[in-house]
Structure prediction request, 499 residues.
Amino acid sequence: MLLRAITIFFLVFSINAHVLQAQQKPNIVFILADDLGYHDIGTYGNKVVPTPHIDSLALSGVKMLNGYCTSPICSPSRAAILTGRYQQRFGFEFQEKDAPIGKLSLMQKKKFYRRAHKEGDIIDLSKDSIVVPNGLPKDEITLAQVLKQNGYKTGAIGKWNLGVADYQLPGAKGFDYFYGFYAAAGLYASEKDPTIVNQHIDDILDRPTWFRHKYSALVRNGEAVDETEYLTNKFGEEAVAFIEQNKSSPFFLYVPFNAPHTPFQAPKDIVARFSNVAEPQKQVYYAMITALDDAIGKIIGKLKETGLDKNTLIIFTSDNGGATYTTATDNEPLKGGKMCEFDGGIKVPYIMSYADKIPAGATYQSPVSTLDIFSTAVGVAGIAAPAGKVYDGVNLLPFVSGENSNAPHDILYWRNGYSKAIRKGEYKLYINEKEKVEFLYDLSKDPGERNDVSTNFPEKAKELKADLNRWEETLGKPMWKSRFHFRLKVRDRYFIFPT
Prediction:
């Protein structure tokens, strides 16, 4: 009996110790803004739009001064973030050709893809003649899948934009819970809501957004739901509810807001705060950023209320640079914006906060990438990345904490069809094969990319081009063609970019 009692005691002790160890794993909250420009928030220099909650993350953690995404377009950028791999490695080079999945067609997405295939909308590159729907390939492993397999509860709340085939949906990619929409954009509220300001933009991208995406369905774990609340507010509330429901176990919460992506809609009472701003599109854009900051404040507040802020890594960034074609932001002094590989399109606000692990109020100068989010998250969770794949990010924690004084990356690369770039040290080479231009910039002296120094340093341009070519040789072929070519004015001239 004594031996049995001792055995039971140690068994119970072992189980309790295991549970305690699981509970001590850090939580991970990753907040992603949509088309938020580098200078659109206070901590990065914006003097018009107060963003106290986002700024508080920088005050409690580290602000990266040279944070980059991997694509100037939403969907490819998100594919790289969730996999920790350059999206070109698995053919996700261009924007996913999504269709708004409405309530009536939610169960007909397979029929949509059969129709798309017949029209030749998808390029079949496989030897077995298997047609691959746009979006994440089946064999790509997301951060959510890795964390879930290691005891984490996982939730995604917001914009998906990574494919709507069964194996591409959030539930199949590691998320226990999903609330949001699958498409690239969606309305924030009914156009007929009297409390909402609707601001249309005379732009080729804005017009179809209002028409197509008004039919996008909001879904909760695959089932369409009705919603009347302003969507940014609702996403914040859903995130708070997820934290409450999972506060006793380690969790990974991914909150990909669609703000401040078009269509421009915001509550009237928030828009009124910017009545001194002359341009109506800027009034609404600023109000959307304010609502985004308020929603993030709810998330931060809930973590503090539950005491989880002491054991939670919080990451905030944007999927790409500000959309200058809306005329609501210009990204200056950075060059260009969304759609292009100039820094205005790929340099993003990037903040990490982790109590007692990252010095409060720190800034970090060396170039970092959103590729690093995957490696940082698995690193702080004490998990090894899955074997058999090349991971392009690094765990940033030793770098931003001061433990490692080296630069996280020697080189960063970009390729979007014929529009390409490489940053190596302080030099950046941009190539647009369609426009037949090559520019070399010394970012240490010219962060605005105004002065091409390729004629002054031809060997440096040649070196970077050779590095870029070697990287391209390691990549796969695009799984589908670009959707269209976009003509974008960048300062004093127009460029054409693929999407």
The chain has one domain: 27-409. Residues 5-22, 107-132 have pLDDT under 50 and may be disordered. Residues 307 and 454 are 53 Å apart (CA to CA). The first helix runs from residue 2 to 23.
